[in-house]
Amino acid sequence: MGVKLGKRAYGRRRAHAVMSDINVTPMVDVMLVLLIIFMVTAPLLTAGVAIDLPKTQAKAINQQDNAPLEITVDANGNIFMGQTAVKLDRLKGILSAISHDNPDRRVYVKADQRLSYGQVMGVMAAVSTSGFTKIALITDQVPGQGQ
Predict the structure, then answer these.
(1) Which of 62, 81, 90, 114 qualifies as a FRET site for 50, CA 20 to 30 Å off?
(2) Tell me: the pLDDT tens digits for 67-126?
């Protein structure tokens, strides 16, 4: 009888012993399934319509075309687009033509500090109503500040 108790006691200890082996087979199975899923879906994400584009002699689009437009209003209220003087009503037409081609182009407005708020807002309204959405007012930085 003593022998049976010993085996039973030993058997119980063995059944509750901590297993020190790691079973990696389920993890490998899951990883292989995920790999297959990604291999199948990745080409679908980048698929497009295959076309053969025509060949031309035209030059590439100049990156300078996306340079910001500069509109300057001097102390006398004269409006300049670049170095060219323009009237406010003519400025609207020019800006409308430019915004038709590229409405995301930036427009920088520089105005003399002695101008009235109304004069600057008149230029800003002309820029805004012509179709531009990226408009910035340019100022000078105070020396010794923000550096």
Answers:
(1) 62
(2) 788 888 887 888 888 778 889 889 888 888 888 877 788 888 888 887 888 888 898 998
CA distance 18 to 127: 77
Give me the sheet containing 135-137, strands edge to edge: 84-86, 79-81, 69-73, 107-111, 135-137
Per-residue pLDDT tens digits for 5-46: 555 555 555 666 777 788 888 889 999 999 999 888 877 765
Which pairs with CB-CB distance under 8 Å and at least 24 residues apart come from 81-90? 88/122, 88/123, 88/126
Q: pTM, whole model, 2 decimals?
A: 0.52
- Whether 91 and 132 have beta carbons less than 8 Å apart is answered as no
Class of the CATH-defined domain 66-137: alpha beta
| CB-based contact 111:81 (threshold 8 Å) | no
Classify residue 29 as left (phi > 0), alpha (psi -120 to 50) or beta.
alpha
User: Residue 131 in contact with residue 95, Cβ under 8 Å?
Assistant: yes
Question: Running DSSP on this structure, what letter comes out for residue 76?
Answer: T
